[in-house]
Design brief:
41% of the residues lie in helices and 21% in strands. By secondary structure, the protein is an alpha/beta fold. A seven-stranded mixed beta sheet has the order 17-18-16-15-19-20-21, with helices on both faces. A six-stranded mixed beta sheet has the order 3-2-1-6-14-13, sandwiched between helices. The longest helix has 27 residues. It is globular. 52% of the residues are buried.
C-alpha cells in the first residue's frame, strides 16, 4: 500500500454517537476517536422524538474534527446506526418530521392489530423476522391505523444511518443489513416483501432500492464538504446496521462460534450462509438479519442493559449525579452473587418510571429475596442478562445443530472484565472479549473493502485480529451457574 488510508466512521447509537478515524497501513487498523456526542430524544405532546438535526450537526462536527487534525484529504466516510427507526421524506426530498423513538407508546397494541391482517407465523416464515412492536413494520402500521397525514405526503422511507447519508449526499438508498431489521424484507426473494409493505399503507415506491454493504452511495455534496473543510469524499454504505458491522469485525474463523454484541440492547447470534426460517425458529424467537458478504445472522435480541440503565436513571434523579461505569461495577462486585433473577425482557422493566420498584415487584411476585442495596440491583441485572445469553445460545445451537466452542463478545461489555467473566461463567463457553469498538472498526473495515483496500471478509477479520487485543476468559464455578440457570429458566 503506497500510503496510509484514512476513513471516517460515523457511528450513531441509542443515546450516544461517535466520529472515529480509521487508519489502515495495509496490515493493521488503528482507531482514532475524534468526536463523541449524545444522541438525544425528548417527549413533545406525548411523542418521543429523536433529535435528528443534532445528529447531522454532530456528523459535521466530526468531519470538521477530522479535517482540523488530518487535512482535507479523506478516502471515504460511512454511517452506521441502530435498526428499525426511520425518517420520512416528502416528494421534494425534505424531512417531514423528526424520527420517532422505537420505544414510543404509539405502537402499543399495533402488533396485535397487525397480526389480525397478517398472522404472526406467516410474517416470520416470509420475512425471517420476529414481530416486535419496535419494528419498522409495526411503527408504520401504527401510523396508518392512527390516520397520520404524514403517510399521504411520504415519498421515501429511510432508516437512520441511510437518512444521515442521504443528507450528506442527496442520494437515497436503503442498505441491506438495515433493511432486514424492518420486518418487511422477504428472505426468500431477497427484496422487499410487497405484500407486507402494502399493509403499512405507505405509497408504492416509498421504500428505496436495497444496496449491498460496501456500496458507494455518492460524494459529500459540495456545500457540506466545504463547511467541513474537505475535498471530494465518497460516502459508503457499510454494513449500516451497527450490529452487522460489529460482527464483521469479530476475530472469528470457522463456524463453531457465536457472538454477543453488547450494548443497551444485546444481540446473541450465529453467522449463517442462508436464512433459517421454520416453526422452530419462530417458537424460539430467533430472527434472521442480514450480514456481510451475503451472510445472514440468526439471532436473538435481549434487553441488554435496559433494566440496569433504568435503575441508574432512577438513582441519578434522586442524587442529581451520574454513576460512572467503574462505580457501578464496584457496587456489583460487592453484592452477593446468584441470589435473585429477573426476565430482562419484561415490558414493565422498560415502561416503568421506577425500574427498581418494578424489579422488586417481580421478585416479590416470584418469591425471591428483594434487592436491598444498589449493588443487589446491579448484580441481578447483570447476572440475569448473562443467563439470558446462555438461554439464547442454547436455542441457537438447537436450531442450527451447531456446537458453539467460542463466544465473541463485542462492543461495550467487552471492555469490562467482571462482565466478560460473568458471560463465560454463565454460558460455560470460553469468551474472546473484543474489540470493544467493534462497531466503528466494522464500519472502517467495510469502507476498506468497498474501496478495494481489503479483499474479503475473512481478510478483514484477520486484520481485526492483528490490530486489537481480545483476551480470553475461561468458564469458572460451573455448578453454581448451572444451578442458577435452572432457577432462571423457571422464571421466564
Amino acid at each position: 500500500m503506497a500510503r496510509q488510508r484514512r476513513y471516517v466512521a460515523l457511528e450513531f447509537g441509542v443515546g450516544r454517537g461517535e466520529a472515529a478515524v480509521g487508519l489502515f497501513d495495509g496490515k493493521t487498523v488503528a482507531i482514532d476517536p475524534i468526536h463523541a456526542f449524545p444522541i438525544l430524544s425528548t417527549g413533545m405532546l406525548g411523542v418521543e422524538y429523536w433529535d435528528f438535526p443534532g445528529m447531522i450537526i454532530n456528523a459535521k462536527l466530526g468531519l470538521r474534527g477530522y479535517s482540523a487534525k488530518y487535512g482535507s484529504a479523506l478516502d471515504s466516510v460511512a454511517c452506521s446506526s441502530w435498526g428499525v427507526d426511520f425518517g420520512l421524506l416528502d416528494k421534494t426530498g425534505q424531512l417531514l418530521a423528526n424520527p420517532v423513538h422505537f420505544m414510543d407508546k404509539r405502537t402499543l397494541g399495533a402488533r396485535e392489530k397487525l397480526h389480525a391482517v397478517i398472522p404472526e407465523r406467516s410474517l416470520h416464515l416470509k420475512t425471517g423476522a420476529q414481530s416486535r412492536r419496535q419494528n419498522t413494520l409495526c411503527q408504520l402500521f401504527s401510523l396508518a391505523k392512527s390516520g397520520s397525514p404524514l403517510l399521504d405526503k411520504t415519498a421515501t422511507v429511510l432508516l437512520m444511518a441511510d437518512l444521515v447519508s442521504y443528507f450528506l449526499t442527496g442520494t437515497a438508498v436503503q442498505e441491506y443489513t438495515l433493511a432486514t431489521t424492518t420486518g418487511m424484507y422477504d428472505v426468500e426473494n431477497g427484496d422487499w416483501s410487497r405484500d407486507v409493505v402494502s399493509a403499512t399503507k405507505i405509497p408504492a415506491g416509498a421504500v428505496p432500492d436495497i444496496v449491498a454493504p460496501g456500496t458507494v452511495i455518492g460524494e459529500i455534496v459540495d456545500a457540506a464538504a466545504s463547511e467541513c473543510g474537505l475535498g471530494m469524499v465518497p460516502v459508503i454504505a457499510p454494513a449500516s446496521h451497527s450490529i452487522a458491522g460489529a460482527v464483521a469485525a469479530a476475530p472469528a474463523a470457522g463456524d463453531e462460534w457465536a457472538y454477543i454484541v453488547s450494548g443497551l440492547w444485546d444481540q446473541v447470534g450465529v453467522e449463517m450462509p442462508t436464512p433459517l426460517v421454520n416453526d422452530d425458529t419462530f417458537a424460539a424467537g430467533l430472527a434472521n438479519e442480514g450480514g456481510v458478504d451475503g451472510n445472514f445472522r440468526l439471532a436473538k435480541t435481549v434487553a441488554g442493559l435496559v433494566p440496569l440503565v433504568g435503575c441508574l436513571k432512577a438513582w441519578e434523579r434522586q442524587e442529581g449525579r451520574e454513576f460512572a461505569a467503574e462505580e457501578v461495577l464496584v457496587l456489583a462486585g460487592a453484592a452477593r452473587p446468584l441470589t435473585r433473577f429477573i426476565d430482562p425482557n419484561l415490558p414493565s422493566l422498560y415502561d416503568s418510571a421506577d425500574v427498581p420498584e418494578a424489579i422488586n415487584a417481580f421478585l416479590r411476585e416470584t418469591g425471591q429475596p428483594l434487592a436491598d442495596t444498589r449493588g443487589d440491583f446491579i448484580r441481578l441485572c447483570l447476572e440475569s442478562l448473562v443467563l439470558s445469553h446462555r438461554r439464547a445460545i442454547a436455542q441457537l445451537a438447537a436450531a442450527t445443530g451447531r456446537r458453539i466452542r467460542i463466544l465473541h463478545l463485542l462492543g461495550y461489555g467487552a471492555g469490562h472484565p467482571l462482565f466478560c467473566q460473568m458471560v463465560a461463567d454463565a454460558t460455560r463457553i470460553p469468551v474472546r472479549a473484543g474489540p470493544a469498538r467493534a462497531k466503528a472498526i466494522g464500519n472502517v473495515l467495510m469502507q476498506a473493502m468497498a474501496l478495494g483496500d481489503i479483499g474479503s471478509l475473512s481478510e478483514a477479520r484477520e486484520i481485526s485480529s492483528r490490530s486489537f487485543e481480545a483476551p480470553l476468559y475461561e468458564p469458572r464455578n460451573g455448578a453454581e451457574w448451572d444451578e442458577a440457570y435452572g432457577k432462571f429458566v423457571k422464571l421466564i
